Structures are given as C-alpha cells and as structure tokens.
C-alpha cells in the first residue's frame, strides 16, 4: 500500500466504539497501522462486531477505555489515560451518536407530542458531545501542531428522512422518524467547518464523514424502498465505509479540511 495511506506509528481515538459502526472505524485504523483507543460510555454493551474485532486484534495496539461524551470530566479522564500510555493522538473519530430505532416507544408519538427531552438528548450526545471531544482532544492536537479529526455525520444532515420508507410499519400513531437526529447531524457538519477554519493554521484538519443507510437487520420492505431510491441501488456495506475513513485519517487527504464526505451511494445527488 502507498505510504500515503499508512497510519504506522499514529495514535487514534474513536468514540462510541463498541456499537455497530465503531468497530468498522477501529478495524480500518488498526489495519493501516495505528494504535487505537476504542472509547465508549461506561456500561455500554459491546456489539458482536466489536467482540469479534477485539478477539482477533493485537492487544498491544487496541486499548479499550471509557468516555461519556456528554460528560466533560469523563472525557478528561479518558484524555489522561490516552496521554499516559500512548501520547497525543493524531486522529480523532467522533462516532458516538444516538438515533431512534423504529421499535422504540417514543417513535410512536405524534409530532406535536414528541418529548422535547428526546430532542435535547440527541443534541447533547450527537452535537455537544462532538464539541466537547474536540475541546479536550482537539486542543492537544493544536498544541502539538498536527492532527485529523473526523466527525461522523449522516445522510440526514443534508436531506430529510423520507417517511414513506417506514409507512409499511403497522401501528398507530404511524412511525415517525424524528427531526432531532438530522438537525443534530446538520449541526455537526456546520461545527466541522467552524473548527476547520479555527485550527487550519495549526495543522489540524477537521472533516465530516456522512454515511447513508448501512445494511443490517432492516426488514425487506424498507430495504427495497430505500435501495430503489439510491443511484447505486443498495444500502452501504460496512466495507464501503473503510476507504473514505482511511482517506480522511491519512495524508492522502492532506489538503482536505472543512469537507463533508458523503458516503451515500449517490442518494443526495438525486
Ligand atoms: N448505522 C447507520 O446506518 C448510520 C448511518 C449514518 C450515520 N450513522 C452514525 O454513525 C455513528 C455510529 O452509529 P451506529 O450505527 O454504530 O450506532 P450504535 O447505536 O450501534 O453505536 C453508537 C455507540 O455510541 C455509544 N454512545 C451513545 N451515547 C454515548 C455517550 N453519551 N458517550 C459515549 N458513547 C455513547 C453507544 O454506547 C454505542 O456504542 C453515529 O454517530 C450514527 O449517527 C450511522
């Protein structure tokens, strides 16, 4: 592989690392040679994907730690652990995030009854959590004079969810994909631009990687409706996300900052 894509000797931090996509980012960074700190909130239960990755990984390059991105003290404790063992990281992937799955209780509220607390919680984790991570870890990169920060956005930062993807779900009131998720992710895209300008003079690049829907346990009707709406005619596979992440993390993207890289199969081009 070209050294342009090598992360040998680099230290990376990934938040929300033990969920669905966390292991995809961690695996990509490990494969490219980095030492990776996989952080998640205290008490998070690891996904099967994360367990499998941990089982096959070299324990001298994969460290597991805790950080609740909504809690500044928790982030600072994680920073201290990373610094003590590995030094200043050069890559930060702000992946921790919450959405509202179709089978959750609040997904059946009418828009006028949607609990405002749900809105606040999504903004707190997805947007303010990303902000606090950049405050604590990004500042270290600024002091050192280099780094790449990748904030995980979403397709729904750019476009509203198409409620017709979900209109085959039975139940009353009908399932409603909430407004707070996309709003919080649009905030992430905007904040990425802010930090890219603030820190560009200090050698720190800041970009957003926005995945489209990733193939998982969705029902057949959803998959058919969603896929027919995508120019590439399918949901993303986990592997589709690895190249874009490596591009943004490595010197292959040395002149890319403030960008939103949409990995959505062309969804937003239509
Ligand atoms: N899966 C998709 O199709 C998809 C598509 C677009 C964007 N995304 C984004 O990718 C990221 C990862 O999504 P996922 O599908 O892996 O979700 P997931 O729910 O499987 O994983 C999210 C992880 O974040 C952690 N987390 C939640 N609150 C936290 C907090 N306060 N502090 C630290 N960690 C916390 C959870 O413990 C979990 O491990 C999210 O930002 C999500 O919005 C996912």
Textual characterization of the structure:
The protein has 270 residues and is an alpha/beta fold. The protein has a domain at 3-99 and 127-157 and 182-214 and 237-262: NAD(P)-binding Rossmann-like Domain (Rossmann fold), CATH 3.40.50.720. It has helices at residues 22-31, 48-56, 72-86, 116-144, 179-199, 220-228, 238-249; strands at 11-14, 35-40, 62-66, 91-94, 147-152, 204-211, 260-263. Strands 3-2-1-4-5-6-7 form a 7-stranded parallel β-sheet, with helices on both faces. It is globular. Nicotinamide-adenine-dinucleotide (NAD) binds next to helix 4. Residues 15-16, 18-22, 40-41, 44, 67-70, 95-99, 125, 129, 152, 154, 211, 213-214 line the site of nicotinamide-adenine-dinucleotide.
Question: Secondary-structure blueprint of this entry?
Answer:
Elements: E1 11-14, H1 22-31, E2 35-40, H2 48-56, E3 62-66, H3 72-86, E4 91-94, H4 116-144, E5 147-152, H5 179-199, E6 204-211, H6 220-228, H7 238-249, E7 260-263
Parallel strand pairs: 1-2, 1-4, 2-3, 4-5, 5-6, 6-7
Helix pairs in contact: 1-7, 3-4, 4-5
The structure holds nicotinamide-adenine-dinucleotide.
Nicotinamide-adenine-dinucleotide (NAD) is lined by residues 15-16, 18-22, 40-41, 44, 67-70, 95-99, 125, 129, 152, 154, 211, 213-214.
């Amino acid at each position: 592989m070209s050294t342009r894509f090598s992360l040998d000797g680099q230290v990376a931090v990934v938040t929300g690392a033990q969920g669905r996509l966390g292991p995809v980012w961690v695996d990509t960074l490990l494969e490219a040679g980095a030492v990776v700190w996989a952080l998640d909130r205290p008490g998070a239960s690891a996904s099967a994907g994360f367990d499998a990755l941990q089982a096959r990984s070299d324990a001298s390059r994969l460290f597991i730690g805790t950080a609740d991105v909504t809690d500044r003290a928790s982030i600072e404790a994680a920073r201290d652990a990373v610094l003590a063992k590995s030094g200043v990281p050069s890559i930060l992937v702000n992946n921790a995030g919450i959405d509202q799955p179709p089978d959750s209780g609040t997904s059946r509220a009418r828009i006028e009854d949607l609990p405002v607390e749900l809105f606040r919680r999504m903004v707190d984790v997805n947007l303010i959590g990303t902000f606090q991570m950049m405050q604590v870890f990004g500042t270290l990169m600024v002091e050192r004079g280099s780094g790449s920060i990748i904030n995980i956005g979403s397709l729904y930062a750019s476009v509203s969810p198409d409620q017709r993807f979900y209109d085959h779900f039975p139940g009353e009131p009908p399932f409603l994909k909430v407004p707070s998720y996309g709003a919080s992710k649009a905030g992430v895209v905007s904040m990425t631009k802010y930090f890219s300008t603030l820190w560009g003079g200090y050698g720190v690049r800041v970009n957003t990687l926005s995945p489209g829907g990733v193939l998982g346990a969705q029902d057949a009707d959803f998959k058919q409706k969603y896929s027919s709406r995508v120019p590439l005619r399918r949901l993303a596979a986990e592997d589709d996300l690895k190249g874009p992440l490596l591009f943004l993390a490595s010197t292959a993207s040395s002149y890319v900052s403030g960008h939103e890289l949409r990995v959505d199969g062309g969804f937003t081009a239509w």
